[in-house]
Hints:
Chain A: Its main location: membrane. The complex is a heterodimer. By secondary structure, chain A is mostly helical.
Amino acid sequence: MTAVRKYPVLAALVLGAAFMVLPFVVVLMNAVKSPEEYSSDGPLSMPDGVYLDGLTDFWERVDFGQKLWNSVLISGSVALLAVVLSVLSAYAIGIGRIRGRPYVLAFFVLANMLPQESLVYPIYYLSKEAGLYDTRLSVVIVFTVVQSAFGTYLLSSVLGGFPREVIEAARIDGATKWQVLWRVVVPVSRPTIGVLMVLFFIWTWNEFLLPLVMLVSDDNQTVSVALGVLQGQRDMDATMTNAAALLGVLPAIAFFLIFQRTLTRGIAVGAVK
Amino acid sequence: MSAPVTGAAKDAARAAGGSGAPSRRRWRKSRAGRPRPTSTEGSYALYLLPGALAFLVVIIVPFVMNTGISFTEWSGVGTPEFTGLENYDRLVGDEDFWESFRHSLAMVAAMALVPTAVGLVLASALFDFVGRHAGSRWVAVLRACFYLPQVLPIAVAGIVWSWILAPESGSLNELLGAVGLDALQQDWLGDPDLALYSVMAVMVWVQIGFPLVIFMSGLQRVDPALHEAAELDGAGWWRRFWHVTLPQLRPEIAVVLLWCTIAALKVFGMVYVLTGGGPGGATNVPSYFAYQNFFENFQAGYGAAISTVLTALILVLAVVALKMQTRAEDENG
């Protein structure tokens, strides 16, 4: 590898990376343009100044604060509940080594792989029967279970390698299984549990099909659903589309920056998704 | 993934050792020594109970129902009418259904084949050139750029691209006009001959970061001595890529290809947002086709049959993927 060949390769990679982030740059540039400036100068010019009325108009028109809150509430609850459910199941499988373990594990993995299309209609129908249709609770319940399929699979394999001596020592000291779980296993597995919570939060935040079907009223919709529906109806003008894109991109970038370390560790762990 | 999971397991084990846990002390109590407090607390299987119940209600019952619905004619209200295999019979003769699966193959190319091939080259270029000569900060920044689209909600990515690809004053057409290539301006998403390719291009952009990150973590596993030996023997970068990197990454490549293929079969959000399956069904995919039958045409039975076929296909691939992953794990220890 000579120095002569190193720079063209580096340049090509930087160019490729620039192409990947270019759409984000264009969105940012245009979200601060006024409609007049947009129609006279087009999407490629640098903005003359910062015009934020388009953003605030859009924010108020779709009640974006409410959408953000719905997304935070749903994704946060799912991250927490799905981790608890995963920990309980994985404790039985990974540490308890219950009988038929490989089959139970295979079941969880296949459940994780199931396309939501084959669940969506019965869930839609059953939730209507149960009076849960168009509630955030219904979406929280469904995704808690869906995400915990992956969590159970991953945690089981991690807990399978848990040092047995630690557990036996605690048991000999008189700890119950329940105490061993919360005072030994959970604190020791904190790194993995942290990765899982971040992945669950972001996956749930990004979910589209089930929330689209389940959350029909404006007050319950998540960011993804609200923006997706607006776009699907094709009744946004260019400025509005831009505002929508920017407001949708910003939380994702924020999570990415906040969780980057956890994520890069987690992506590899979460390869299954 | 094999390697990363082992890594997480090691994390946990290290944390256990570091916290001064008895594992370091190297003693063992004789098991018969003391009675264990097992009598009152029940077995480990109890901890599986909440998960099992939740799965029964949210996954198993709906799945069985959906399969059941696929043998009926049902608008969603009233009583489903049992029709046996009629829906499947209709599927076989439905040109729209076959077309949607042909589009799935296009999605497999865009989301599995191309990203895997490009991801391999990118990952080893980042690892070999940038990692060794420009430093790990560059690697981290460049990797983050390629990975960014992966964290974006698919609906938001769809909005960004439908605006860029808009026929009137969309950025792409404006850009082509600005550099004098007006002749190449197109209605990227509205032209039936072009729309599928546009959607495919967007999916490549969305997907590329995933194989990249997996392959980069796989490359850390490869013994540098292999590369050094090949380099000493006078092998250039491409030859080392073919004869060292590729064979070493085989488990990762297999797993990435299969997972991405499954993801490609499930594509829904991007089609919903970008084209709505149009124009004239030119970008319809099975999951969107099922959605239309469920919620737009009120033919729940037919929608259920489509999703059952899709599920069967995915489960077969999933079982293959699992088998391969277990084998890869065994090989890696």
